[in-house]
Amino acid sequence: MKILLLLLLSTTAMVHAQNTISFEPEMTSPKAKLSQIEWLAGHWKGEAFGGIAEEIWSPPTDGSMMFSFRLIDKGAVSFYEFGHIIEVDDTLLLQLKHFDGDLGGWEQKDESVDFILVKVEENKFYFDDFTIERISDTEINMYVDVSEEEGTSNEITFNYHRQ
Predict the structure, then answer these.
(1) What pTM did the predictor assign?
(2) Distance CA 6, CA 163 (A)
(3) For residue 37, what are the CA distances in angstroms to 6, 55, 78, 155?
(4) Nearest-angstrom CA–CA distance, 124 and 134
């Protein structure tokens, strides 16, 4: 399951999905500041993969917004993610690391899964195959474009409500 979830959350899709955009080599990241996405700060909860998904985002401070994520399935934590969005070279970069329910790391010690910013709209931030959308002050969607083993692509929607 760990390999499936890692592929789910960190692969680049071969086909573009409706709510996500892939970063291509000829692209450049748009200028952006954390103040544009500070609405993300807070405690969010929703359903995903047959369980409960939960994210907690800090307010922006000194060029960083940190977060924690956990997926609870059948009364136990399936996995965690810890990471941040940081300001780098006048744009934003989303970085994360995955951990099993017992905090066993998935990535190598000095590695992270990085999502380069592709496009910014008023209420949508498009990172590479990962989009964060503000629906209202109390609801957000996150979209992840997932490559399947057979070469197809599937977009997963995480619908969260502010706690």
Answers:
(1) 0.86
(2) 27
(3) 25, 15, 28, 22
(4) 6
